[in-house]
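Running this now, will post back.
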Amino acid sequence: MNKLSFTTVTLLSCFAISSCSQDLNDYSQHKNAFDIKEYFNGNVTAWGTIQDASDVVTRRFCVELQGTWKHGDGVLAEKFYFDDGEISYRNWHFSQQSDGHYIGTAEDVIGEAIGWQQGFAFNLTYTLLLPVDGSTYEVSMDDWMYQLDQNRVINKTAINKFGVNVANVTLFFDKQPPVKGCQ
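Update: finished.
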């Protein structure tokens, strides 16, 4: 196969793969709206894994979240407990905009995160400063949350660098009383 043919096939394959990705409008017909202000208000605990690009689990973690909202503005304090003993923190500040979407900021987020909701789904995209082995990388995060019921949400996140998937995160949130912590 010559270089031009190989390039054409590669580009068409990439286009075909990317055109098959989900769209938030796929969830517009679902009547039960996922209200992040309601769900992430108070204490929530989540358990998750980080998978490399081959889908091999490289880390496991638990995160305790404390959310407070006033009108359309909220703070979501997160404390992560990793299986290797690392503990880290992130403090999100969210503001709901007049058209319904959310703008979010955090210490390790470059610029603003943008979030949209449709039906039971919420999509949040942002650029994260990700520390790995003493270096810090700018990666694109594509967070998809799906509310299963009033107490449970599942979250799948694609972590991309230069448009290439380098890792994935899977999380399960639970706020069923009594809310269990990580310890």
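The chain has one domain: 32-174. More later if anyone needs it.
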